[in-house]
Specification:
This protein folds into 3 domains: 328 residues, Glycosyltransferase; 75 residues, Immunoglobulins (Immunoglobulin-like); 84 residues, Immunoglobulin-like. With 538 residues, the protein is α+β, with helices and mostly antiparallel strands. The strands form 5 sheets. Strands 13, 14, 15, 16, 17, 18, 19 and 20 form an 8-stranded mixed beta sheet that branches. Strands 6-12-11-8-9 form a 5-stranded mixed beta sheet, with no helix packed on it. A 3-stranded antiparallel beta sheet has the order 1-2-3. Helix content is 29%, strand content 23%. It is built from 14 helices and 20 strands. A hairpin with a 2-residue loop joins β16 and β17.
């Protein structure tokens, strides 16, 4: 795009481009070690949500055209062209249903924000937005751009204030899509629309949601302006192709800096002051925007958090989400609820929206470092105890299943690729084998040597031993390599480890006054014991 000439100098439109040309944008800097798996899973799940090319809301029985467009935008970002085409083909004959709605006889509400998104979709699908579904969307969009001096460049709805629930719903999100759409389609009003969009950015760098009424109602002049992660991220995504203009580049740089400052330590984002909780929708948009402009470290942190709320539950740790691999939950609480109840008719819409907004950000999800084969611990553990199991080299944010006797535990790898889970070892003496796996396959297995309470078979070679002579005691039923301590009359006389056959033999001198001697054997734990007696004689 040519550099826009600003107010005070005059406004000139960019030269018209070919009808279906999309402005060239530098390729985003993908993470060098990005893992393609979360994007592949998310793309497949999202594509499966389409019915005849559109998202159908089963809860309320309607085709959600707006969400369908969002699915297509996400699919384009991850190069799923078949999904983009499917949505475009289904939307084109119904595009007026998307951009307008009936209010009353002779009254039709027109939404330029929806028109702008439809233009973008048409271009992404290699369709002509000037003849999309029989509609000239570019002309319709420019018809909703003000040419008045006071609010030049502002988009506004066709609405009817005398009717209930009617208002001008145009906002900064629609304004940013309008700037992108008109730039890509070679519209005549791109400079004016972009100028008015930049007025919605506050000095701190964020963009507000509500459009000012005129050029004087800037974001900085608005005491009620609310910082919005979603609006700011979408402004960055829609302006990134216009950064040949120095003022646009400055605005994008300021918005990116604000996003970086507001990212939380765990990589997530809240939406705004009213929705402060970390969520996949806002984190997804912010991570997507940060990745697209090359701020990859922050994008990787966001993608890691998003992966931690993506359904990826292996069959070994089957939950109600095991069949929904790739779906992205709104947050950890929603992920946990869906693991118990599944994605229901009431929650499917939330999952679809979260996945559509978060999927592109997963392009910066870092890969693991070739997960190392889990190492079995040769030490013994008491039955019924809690034991921590570990996996290393896993992809950050990836779900890991630890499954074995009496346990089926899901864990999430931290940013270093380490995952851990605590299992309660079942009763009984045995080598307990626990498998470690992710949605992509097995990581290996670890064996825990578990010992339960036991009474050992303990026998003395002689029932009567002369004082000063040698006595031999044999202990059977031990575990291979089990530690053994032998005491006679309360004094420790020997210790060691059992043989491979679980036998321990001790020899000691019979000492002390004549009389009965009690031999006590204690194995690895205090509840593993043996006992025998003999007599010392003169």
């Amino acid at each position: 795009m040519n550099t826009l000439l600003r107010r005070g100098i005059g406004l000139l439109a960019a030269p018209a481009l070919a009808a279906t040309a999309v402005a060239a944008v530098p390729a985003p800097a993908r993470a060098a070690d990005a893992d393609p798996v979360p994007v592949e899973h998310g793309s497949a799940w999202l594509a499966a949500q389409l019915t005849g090319g559109l998202v159908h809301n089963d809860q309320y029985g309607f085709d959600d055209l707006g969400l369908s467009v969002d699915v297509a935008l996400a699919a384009d970002a991850v190069d799923e062209t078949a999904t983009v085409s499917a949505v475009s083909d289904a939307l084109a004959p119904r595009v007026q249903d998307y951009t307008t709605y009936f209010v009353a006889a002779g009254k039709t509400h027109v939404s330029p924000g929806s028109i702008a998104k439809a233009v973008v979709l048409a271009l992404l699908a290699d369709e002509d937005p000037r003849a999309y579904g029989g509609q000239n969307l570019v002309a319709q969009l420019e018809d909703r751009v003000s040419t008045e001096t006071a609010d030049r460049g502002r988009i506004s709805d066709v609405f009817f204030p005398e009717e209930p629930f009617e208002a001008d719903f145009a906002n900064t999100i629609g304004q940013s899509f309008a700037a992108r759409a008109l730039d890509a389609a070679g519209g005549d009003e791109v400079a004016e629309v972009t100028d008015f969009l930049l007025l919605q950015q506050c000095e701190e760098g964020f963009f507000r949601l509500d459009l000012g009424a005129d050029a004087a109602a800037t974001c900085d002049a608005d005491a009620a302006a609310v910082a919005s992660t979603d609006v700011t991220a979408l402004a960055v995504l829609n302006l990134k192709g216009l950064t040949d203009d120095p003022e646009v580049k400055t605005a994008v740089d300021a918005a990116v800096a604000w996003l970086v400052r507001t990212q939380r330590a765990d990589g997530s984002f809240g939406s705004d002051g009213q929705i402060a909780v970390s969520n996949a929708n806002s984190t997804g948009l912010a991570g997507w925007a940060l990745g697209e402009v090359g701020t990859t470290a922050a994008a990787e942190r966001a993608a890691t958090w998003l992966r931690s709320v993506q359904a990826a539950d292996p069959a070994q740790c089957a939950t109600a989400l095991t069949g929904a691999t790739g779906a992205i939950a709104y947050g950890p609480a929603e992920l946990g609820a869906a693991r118990r109840a599944g994605i229901t008719a009431a929650t499917r819409d939330q999952f679809r929206r979260a996945t559509a907004q978060a999927l592109p950000a997963l392009q910066w999800a870092p890969d693991g470092t070739d997960a190392s084969e889990p190492v079995s611990d040769s030490r013994f553990v008491r039955a019924g105890a809690k034991q921590q199991l570990h996996a290393d080299g896993v992809a950050p944010g990836e779900t890991v299943c630890f499954a074995g006797p009496g346990a089926s535990v899901l864990s999430t790898a931290d940013r270093s690729g380490h995952a851990a889970a605590t299992v309660t070892l079942p009763k009984g003496t045995a080598d307990r084998r626990y498998t470690l796996s992710t949605a992509r396959g097995s990581l290996g297995a670890v064996t825990v040597r578990v010992l339960d309470a036991k009474r050992f078979k303990t026998g003395a070679a002689k029932k009567r031993v002369e004082r000063g002579a040698k006595q031999r005691v044999v202990v059977r039923g031990l575990a291979r390599g089990e530690r053994v301590v032998v005491r006679v009359a309360g004094k420790r006389v020997d210790s060691g480890k059992a043989t491979r056959k679980g036998v321990f033999t001790t020899r000691f001198k019979a000492t002390g006054k004549p009389g009965k001697r009690v031999v006590k054997v204690v194995g690895q734990f205090g509840d593993r014991t043996g006992r025998t007696t003999f007599r010392v004689v003169r």
